[in-house]
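ESCALATION

Customer reports they have been waiting on this structure for their group meeting. Please prioritize. Original submission:
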Amino acid sequence: MAILMSLCMSFAMAALNVGFGESFIPAWLSGWGIGFVVSFPFSMFVPALIQKVMCKLRI
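Update from on-call: job pushed to the front of the queue and completed.
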């Protein structure tokens, strides 16, 4: 899930910021690499944290 989400988000942001010129692919791949490094840990730890909070609230 983190791979697909970071791939789509980085594509959209590179398209908006750089455009579809010759620098698009390097900018997109660079943005995807950074996005994946950030999104993967969040996708592992945030759901567990939310579940723990919800169990304490009994919702």
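Sent to customer with the following note: Residues 2-57 form one domain.
Escalation resolved.
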